Amino acid sequence: MEKALVKSFLGGIPNMFNGNNPYKDYKKIRDKMPIQRLSPMRWLVMKYDDAVSIMQNPSVSHWGQDTQTQFALFGKQSTMSKTMYAYAPEIDSPHRKKVLHGLAARNLKFEKVAMKLTAEKYIKECLSKGKFDFVSDFANPYTFETISRIIGIPEDDIPYLINLVGKLKNGYLTLINDLNPEDPIEKEFLIFLQKFIDNKSKTLDDDLASSLIESCKLAGESNEFALCLLLFLFYAGHDNMMNFLGNGFLSLYENQDVYNNLKNSPELIANCIDELLRYDSPVQFSLMFTKNDIVVRNVKIVAGSQILVCIGSANRDPEKFENPEEIKIDRNPQHLSYGFGAYRCIGARLAQLQSATAFEVLISNLDIDHLKVSNTSWKNEQYIQRGPKKIIVSINK
Ligand code: HEM
């Protein structure tokens, strides 16, 4: 299995989808060939039921997060696989437990007020400009500030960091595998985080960084490993959330009746978050590896294969969702954007709270009839994540 797995891991998302709007392409492929073999050991799965059956099949590994696949794929030494493994449900991981505890509802309830104030601060700045970029002026700083506060970054350092991470060329995940980068910006960010962790470990606090530093100490892991765990949280809590807010804002702009419904009945916003996630998820694919042979829709997929489960397509499968191309506020959908089953996202509660707060503030402050959106561009590295790079919004009074 080992050789086959390593071979199948190479290669990204097939170049078959329009990066700006992949949904028409998804539909064509889903209707014609819901499971297809991209190469001898790579498969693409487009339908909801197949996605669910794969996601909960014990013979399938999520992102290589189990002992067998992890060691076959990366070897024991890869920091990336070790970091992801630390958050996986397979083992009784102390690090995963700390994050689950830190993001539990009772611990998050105090965050709502701070999130609201943060969102209000940034929307006020946007309004005073008259013309603003939704991504860099709102979604980026709001989501970064929120996850930084939960991690325990000192308030005074947040503006400096927002500016610094805005210049990171390759995002957070690549840093996990290269803690000694050449790039001066990457270096500066890592030096900041290393100092931050060193200081925190002297006086542990009531935040996620302290919990993870503690769990690393107890597990005999270094502060460097705590740094990797934090980088993953920045990726999940900042990149994912920023992309989701961008996707959700555009979806509402393009569906003004839904926007106005939410404006008239803001109590429906929290419910609508799941529908927005179904409609346009920031996570478009899940990467699975078969540990044993499996059968999906009468097709045999042999052990050691890679399966790309297209979450974006499954979320618009008409056999699961009636009129899937429509946003329905009261649908309450069982979407797959957070994954499914034991591996489901452990930050989902935070994501719901944070995005509901953002949309409450946006909708109460922005009148859709006076908004004009132009110059939207999409991040071009269309791999797993989907999100806008820029959304220029003008306000006509
Ligand atoms: C809209 C926002 C988000 C989406 C769509 C999302 C989606 C996902 C998905 C699809 C997975 C993998 C599930 C699988 O393996 O099958 C995941 C795992 C995870 N997510 Fe999220 N997520 C979001 C926000 C967050 C936030 C805010 C945090 C917390 C800081 C977070 C932390 C994590 C962690 C720690 C994992 C586990 C990673 C692992 O298993 O190694 N996520 N998320």
UniProtKB/TrEMBL annotation:
Belongs to the cytochrome P450 family. It comes from Flavobacterium hankyongi. Signal peptide: none annotated. Gene3D superfamilies: Cytochrome P450 (1.10.630.10). This is Cytochrome P450. SUPFAM superfamilies: Cytochrome P450.
